[in-house]
Amino acid sequence: MRKSTCVTTGREEIISKRYKEISDIIKKNAADKVEYVVKKIAGISRSAWYKCISKGPRQGLVSASTVKKFAAFSGLSEDIFSGKIDFTAEDKKVFADKLKEAFAKPSEEKKGGKEKKAKKEKTVKAEKIKKEKKGRPGRKPSKEKALKPVEKSGEVIKVKREYKKSVKSDGGLTVGRLKNFASEIEGLNDIKQLETISEVLEKLSKITEKKIDFVSALKEL
């Protein structure tokens, strides 16, 4: 700022305190931050504003342009913003009302309405997610759900038995393989191989007998 444009020389202390008051009034009555408000009103940057109210070489120095813009916005005398006359309680109220009008804070009613709307949207979203988890109406249960164990142990065994029936065709293949294996044995002449096969068949026989007993017990349930 050129010295020729400064209109507060000699009143730096008064201006520093006055513009701090203005800053406090803005904080209480405007929805926006102080630096945004003074930028809109007087075209002052954030750094210039804080240099004016803080201790330093630029403390209390305000240009004629800034004074005129504050006066034009508030409708108050330029002498208030240049520090020539007092900033009365009535002046402060006028300035506060202008701030409320230009940079109004949202009313409690509007704020409450927004909170209710957000809460309602949250509830609707939760219900939607809940319905999606349950699945669509008429949707067929998956195989995994259909095979879930029921409370009675007898019913659980029935489900398992039905599953065994679905692979009954594999039994025919197993018998066919054994028949082919028997025909291969008939063609063998090696005693060691035949003895080894005999031991394996003996073990298979015991396993088969145990399986027969187990299946018979299931059928009796």
Summarize the structure.
With 221 residues, the chain is an all-alpha fold. Helix content is 71%, strand content 0%.
Describe the structure.
The protein has 221 residues and is mainly α. Helices cover 71% and strands 0% of the residues. It is built from eleven helices and no strands. α1 crosses α6 (89-102). The longest helix is centred in the last third of the chain and has 30 residues, at 191-220. It is rod-shaped. The N and C termini lie far apart (102 Å). 15% of the residues are buried. Mean pLDDT is 79; it is low at 155-160 and 162-170.
Helix-strand layout with pairing:
Layout (H helix, E strand, L loop, with lengths): L11 H18 L4 H9 L3 H8 L10 H11 L3 H5 L6 H14 L5 H27 L8 H4 L6 H13 L3 H18 L4 H30 L1
Helix pairs in contact: 1-6
Overall structural class, as computed from helix and strand content, comes to mainly alpha
Please state the CA-atom Rg, rounded to the nearest Å.
47 Å
Would you list the SSEs in sequence order as H and E?
HHHHHHHHHHH
* Residue runs with pLDDT of under 50 for 5 or more positions: 155-160, 162-170
What is the number of beta strands?
0
Choose one word for the global shape.
rod-shaped
Helicity level = over 70%
Major beta-sheet overview: none
How much of the sequence is in beta strands? under 5%
